[in-house]
Amino acid sequence: MEMGAYKNENVCTGHGAGIHVCRFKISFLEEGLKRFKELSHVGDIRQKGMMVGIELVEDKKTKKPYPWEDNIGHRVILEARKNGLVIRPLGNVIVLMPVLSMTIPELEQVLDITYNAIAKVTGER
Q1: Domains of the chain (ranges plus CATH)?
Q2: What is the per-residue pLDDT across 37-76, written as a single tens digit (0 to 9) for each?
Q3: What are the protein's UniProt keywords (predicted)?
Q4: In angstroms, rounded to a whole number, what is the distance separating the alpha carbons of residues 87 and 26?
Q5: pTM to 2 decimal places
Q6: Cα(61)–Cα(80) distance, integer angstroms
Q7: Which positions ≥6 away from 72 have C-beta within 8 Å?
């Protein structure tokens, strides 16, 4: 079924203002994720609404994944946890699922902590 312009409204229903705020937050998250593409070990970023998967790779050009035994996803989430952010990995993919009630400054903090954790663990800092 094609959802068109209404694909994200099912999580923001009830009031027109709520839909506007939801769309704004999704767009803000999408914009904030663009800088992650600069990181040399981010192979792909997938987003659907407020759900995000950041794939970590050993080689960006070939998309060669990190060896399973490197446990890179787990190491990144532990680094983020040191800074107060609880996120989870699915193997080499870092999963972000911020709640819709999160403020823009809180969303910025999620992005900053995640970015810095990836950069530190992958040796870019």
Answers
A1: 4-121 (3.90.1150.10)
A2: 999 999 999 999 999 999 999 999 999 999 999 999 999 9
A3: Aminotransferase, Transferase
A4: 18
A5: 0.86
A6: 26
A7: 56, 66, 92, 121, 122
